[in-house]
Amino acid sequence: MSAPAPHIPVLLDEVIHSLAITPGAEIVDGTFGAGGYSQAILADGARVYAFDRDPDALKEGANLAGRSEGALRLYAACFSNMDDVLIADGISSVDGVVLDIGVSSMQLDRAERGFSFQKDGPLDMRMGQDGMTAADFVNEAEEADIADIIYRYGEEHRSRRIARSIVAARPIETTAQLAAIVRKAVGHKPGAPKDPATRAFQAIRIHVNRELDELTDGLEAAERMLKPGGRLAVVTFHSLEDRIVKQFLRRRSGAEAAGSRHMPLVGSDGPSPTFDKAEKAVRPTDAELARNPRSRSATLRSATRTQAPAWATGGLAA
After folding, report:
1. Pairing state of beta strands 47-52 and 26-29?
2. DSSP, residue by residue, 225-259
3. What percent of the chain has pLDDT above 90?
4. Fewer C-beta neighbours within 10 Å, C or N terminus of the chain?
């Protein structure tokens, strides 16, 4: 179990500290990836229930599971289904849940997976390697729908111009083709600190994989699985994800500043807080940024589960 992971996970020490692991604890690693978090959790004497929808990650994690002497179980499932999967396997609650949201370095680094605009490959982007591809979306969706997705999930204000260019250039088959279309549409300045294709690729990837819905559902599943005193740790990489986690923890801790007809305040007639007040957000140190530039936008949020029953799904969901 001492072999290093192919990629060092972001905020590893901080995540392990936030989980407050004790020997024999049962921890869910909802985003197994290259297994970095799972290895560190196993090293602390805990059992790990690891989830990933990517067949490549599970295949490469089989060796670690084999060396763990039963301490690591791998599940080919989305982390949003962790409660259903674990309960069916005889596990009713856990001591901790860690989620590392977004695309993994392993996926980005493999051109054939089609996630990166820096590596030419088929326009795929599917984490689970099934269902709609990014090529299906950009080649078949209505222009207005493409613009809406790029605006909503990429926070790209030039989304209509990009969508118009995408439709005009169909069919689009590779990541290099799409990146060139986006750069031309918005104006590419060589040497700029951020590639203009970044936001559009992010948006399309999030849409293809339903990432924000998966995150919301996964937070609720973690709430249902965690024991009183159990720890939740979530690492996000952009504002849309972080906002969902931050708002979820504020609502579930009863710290929401104001209510509305869509989001009532937690009060005497409402559900009791299921988490203590979230701890202060943690971001990478200068040393980690130097070692791993991909960590630059990472944020860790964590909180402790109370004894209150989980809230009903929907209505007051994140």
Report:
1. parallel
2. HEEEEEEEEEEE-SHHHHHHHHHHHHHHTT--S--
3. 78
4. N
